[in-house]
Amino acid sequence: MSDIEIRDDRPAGRLEAFAGDRVVGHIEYFVLEEPARALVPVHTIVEPEHEGQGIAGSLARELYVMAAREGVVVAPLCPYVVKWAERHPDEAPAADPALLNAAVEWLKAHPGRF
Question: pTM of whole model > 0.85?
Fold first, then answer.
Protein backbone atom coordinates (compact mmCIF):
# COMPACT_ATOMS: atom_id res chain seq x y z
CA MET A 1 0.00 0.00 0.00
CA SER A 2 3.03 2.28 -0.05
CA ASP A 3 2.01 3.57 -3.48
CA ILE A 4 -1.20 5.10 -2.08
CA GLU A 5 -1.29 8.84 -1.51
CA ILE A 6 -4.03 10.42 0.59
CA ARG A 7 -5.24 13.93 -0.25
CA ASP A 8 -7.89 16.12 1.31
CA ASP A 9 -10.32 17.81 -1.05
CA ARG A 10 -11.97 20.02 1.58
CA PRO A 11 -14.25 21.93 -0.84
CA ALA A 12 -15.71 18.61 -2.05
CA GLY A 13 -15.74 17.09 1.44
CA ARG A 14 -13.66 14.11 0.36
CA LEU A 15 -10.52 12.56 1.76
CA GLU A 16 -9.21 10.61 -1.22
CA ALA A 17 -6.76 7.74 -1.64
CA PHE A 18 -4.89 7.82 -4.94
CA ALA A 19 -3.00 5.08 -6.73
CA GLY A 20 -1.15 7.14 -9.31
CA ASP A 21 -3.72 9.53 -10.73
CA ARG A 22 -6.71 7.31 -9.95
CA VAL A 23 -8.94 7.63 -6.86
CA VAL A 24 -9.21 4.14 -5.37
CA GLY A 25 -11.03 5.05 -2.17
CA HIS A 26 -12.44 7.97 -0.26
CA ILE A 27 -14.23 9.16 2.83
CA GLU A 28 -17.06 11.63 2.29
CA TYR A 29 -17.32 14.09 5.17
CA PHE A 30 -18.56 17.49 6.17
CA VAL A 31 -17.38 20.09 8.66
CA LEU A 32 -19.78 20.70 11.51
CA GLU A 33 -19.58 24.22 12.94
CA GLU A 34 -22.05 24.11 15.86
CA PRO A 35 -22.11 23.30 18.75
CA ALA A 36 -18.38 22.90 18.07
CA ARG A 37 -16.23 22.41 15.01
CA ALA A 38 -15.83 18.76 14.00
CA LEU A 39 -15.05 16.63 10.97
CA VAL A 40 -17.98 14.29 10.32
CA PRO A 41 -17.30 11.27 8.11
CA VAL A 42 -20.45 9.90 6.51
CA HIS A 43 -19.31 7.25 3.98
CA THR A 44 -16.15 5.27 3.33
CA ILE A 45 -15.82 3.71 -0.10
CA VAL A 46 -12.97 1.65 -1.55
CA GLU A 47 -13.03 0.44 -5.14
CA PRO A 48 -13.66 -3.34 -5.19
CA GLU A 49 -10.33 -4.20 -6.81
CA HIS A 50 -8.53 -2.38 -3.96
CA GLU A 51 -10.44 -3.83 -1.01
CA GLY A 52 -8.47 -5.66 1.64
CA GLN A 53 -5.36 -3.53 1.16
CA GLY A 54 -5.77 -1.32 4.23
CA ILE A 55 -6.95 1.72 2.27
CA ALA A 56 -10.09 2.34 4.34
CA GLY A 57 -8.10 2.14 7.56
CA SER A 58 -5.47 4.52 6.21
CA LEU A 59 -8.20 6.99 5.26
CA ALA A 60 -9.79 6.76 8.72
CA ARG A 61 -6.41 7.23 10.42
CA GLU A 62 -5.61 10.26 8.25
CA LEU A 63 -8.98 11.84 9.05
CA TYR A 64 -8.16 11.67 12.77
CA VAL A 65 -4.66 13.02 12.11
CA MET A 66 -6.13 15.93 10.14
CA ALA A 67 -8.59 16.67 12.93
CA ALA A 68 -5.83 16.66 15.54
CA ARG A 69 -3.72 19.00 13.38
CA GLU A 70 -6.69 21.37 13.11
CA GLY A 71 -7.52 21.13 16.81
CA VAL A 72 -10.98 19.68 16.18
CA VAL A 73 -12.61 16.33 16.83
CA VAL A 74 -14.04 13.67 14.58
CA ALA A 75 -17.74 12.92 15.07
CA PRO A 76 -18.10 9.73 13.02
CA LEU A 77 -21.42 8.75 11.47
CA CYS A 78 -19.85 6.39 8.93
CA PRO A 79 -20.19 2.82 10.26
CA TYR A 80 -16.70 1.90 9.07
CA VAL A 81 -15.07 4.86 10.82
CA VAL A 82 -17.07 4.15 13.99
CA LYS A 83 -15.74 0.58 14.06
CA TRP A 84 -12.21 1.69 13.19
CA ALA A 85 -12.29 4.21 16.05
CA GLU A 86 -13.48 1.52 18.48
CA ARG A 87 -10.49 -0.64 17.47
CA HIS A 88 -8.04 2.29 17.77
CA PRO A 89 -9.08 4.30 20.84
CA ASP A 90 -5.53 5.61 21.30
CA GLU A 91 -5.70 7.27 17.86
CA ALA A 92 -9.41 8.09 17.78
CA PRO A 93 -10.74 9.98 20.78
CA ALA A 94 -14.47 9.53 21.35
CA ALA A 95 -16.70 12.40 20.27
CA ASP A 96 -19.10 14.06 22.65
CA PRO A 97 -22.61 12.61 22.15
CA ALA A 98 -23.94 16.17 21.70
CA LEU A 99 -21.67 16.56 18.66
CA LEU A 100 -22.87 13.27 17.23
CA ASN A 101 -26.49 14.35 17.71
CA ALA A 102 -25.76 17.70 16.07
CA ALA A 103 -24.13 15.89 13.14
CA VAL A 104 -27.20 13.69 12.68
CA GLU A 105 -29.43 16.77 12.76
CA TRP A 106 -27.21 18.49 10.19
CA LEU A 107 -27.61 15.50 7.87
CA LYS A 108 -31.38 15.59 8.30
CA ALA A 109 -31.37 19.29 7.40
CA HIS A 110 -29.27 18.62 4.27
CA PRO A 111 -30.87 15.49 2.77
CA GLY A 112 -29.36 15.86 -0.70
CA ARG A 113 -25.76 16.31 0.47
CA PHE A 114 -24.87 12.62 0.85
Answer: yes
